[in-house]
Amino acid sequence: MASSVGRADARPLARLGSAARRFGKRESSARRRRVSPSLAIGALLTLALLVAALTAPWLAPYAPDQVMAGERLAPPSADHPFGVDMLGRDLLSRVWHGARLAVNMVVVSLAIAALGGISLGLPAGYYGGWIDQILSRLMDVWLAFPGLLLAVVVVARLGPTLDNAMIALGLMSAPGFYRLTRTLTLSARRTAYVEAARAVGVSDAAIMLRHILPNISSSLIVLATSRAGMLILAGGSLSFVGLGAQPPQPEWGALLATGRNYLDSAPWLAVYPGLCLTLAVIGLNLLGDGLRDTLDPRNGWRQ
Amino acid sequence: MLLRHLARRAVGSVFVLLAVSLITFLALDAAPGDAAQAMVGESASAEQLAELRQALGLDRSPLFRYAQFIGGVALRGDLGRSLVSARPVSTLLAERLPYTAALALTATGLALALGALSGIVAAQRAGSPLDLLLMAGATLGLAVPTFWSGLLLILFFALRLRWLPVAGAESARHIVLPALTLAIPTAAIVARLLRSSLLDVMSADYVRTAYAKGLSPRQVLIGHVLRNSLIPLVTVVGLHLGHLLGGAFVVESIFGWPGVGRLAVQAIFDRDTPVVLGATLTVAALYLAINLCVDLIHGWLDPQVAEGAI
User: Fold this and answer.
1) pTM here?
2) Rounded distance, CA B251 to CA B167, Å?
3) For the domain with range A37-302, which CATH number is right: 1.10.340.30, 1.10.3720.10, 3.40.50.2300, 1.20.120.340?
4) What pLDDT is recorded for position A299?
5) For labelling, which of A1, B27, B202, B212 has a CA lying 20 to 30 Å from the CA of B141?
């Protein structure tokens, strides 16, 4: 009797259960066999961003600071697909050059974050003990600054420029690289290849750099990819409130900050830079998620 | 057990907060143009500058001033005075905190409602076009910068439709657009997380066992499925509430919302160190307190944690 009552009520839940069996557990193994559509879209959008960044000086129709005084605030047209800004500069060309700044910002801040995080994470995981204790507590303090607060403090110290914003974002992202490097090094330390290297007398530094680092690098690359989208958002946020790139620079966040003053009369000034920024972040996020699901066996949402 | 764990966490938090204040103080203290320079401008003479520095106490050593500052905070809750308006920093913060709290809580509530609804619907129809649509929406929500979605919402709801005010904080209607802007990314995360953890839990052995011992689907849903799906959700929502506090300055700036974040950004431009310091410490303290609460709720939802698994 209980079972017949149960069956009547259970339909939505049973559906949920069978859906779970189809899409939950086996999803990752199915993905490993073929490229998922979201990974393909992510790779395509990221490629578009990189191509845009590389070709801006040659293919963009105008120079980013070229002024056409007669066409101030002209709406989008065949000549100016994204419209013209309040000084008479072609918005498409400015946004196109903005892709260069965005890619540059991601690369530089990721390099700072990876360099800092890895160079501290390797010894912490390899030696353990008090080195690990001190470094890990230090990172806890770092992580006690929520959101962009650490970046804001660093910019407050160094002054509001795009270069300083990149440094700030790099410092802000370092703990993520530290934690992953430390955890992976901790487990690599006990593997046969490290034991073997130690037995034949390889120095600690060489073991860390030449044996452990290459073996954990695929996970680090996945982490870097999945942080890239967040970094573009964070850099844009800093520039938008005036703590990053400054007005003549066609950085996307700075373009939006200008566009906001003309929201009623020339909305295209705010619409197009934001659209490009969003597409770039979607691309990098999808690529990061897809790579993690495909390459990293320790995938999942756990942090 | 839980009490001892909590006490240890609380003591740890105080030390972290001290370290945060030291880093922030030292970082801001040695900033190239100090507040005296910002107040008198570039044209002032060296004597005028030195006089003002002395009046503001900027001629003392950094460590002395840090000790003085921490002593004041610990003994009297005194965060110093603004170098620009000469008003107590604690008063400035007390004026702004209710606005920040109102915005963060409204946004979190909105994000939970939107995210939970789409997450549960998507999980029930996993693999359907509706699921695909909702998850595509979540991907978009995670990628869209708040400074763009905020401007688009203003453009559409305030300038075109004229349903809601553009900026300010005079009435309850003013909170709708900033809260919605801030809620979008969190709602996207909640939806994705709830969907995947519902799917995980539904295929877990203990759910089958619960059915096998004759529990009704409702009992299984409430007693087993939701409870276990909530555990990762509480952690992530708690973390995000903290990040909302640390990132709200962007949304506050778009909508002219008089919160702590805007106070801090303005203070950075003014080189008003005590205000930047006070705002940073307040946000960091709130963040640590939220993390402690998340731990508590976590322990209540997951008995393994309370029994000392961490």
Assistant:
1) 0.82
2) 11
3) 1.10.3720.10
4) 45
5) B202
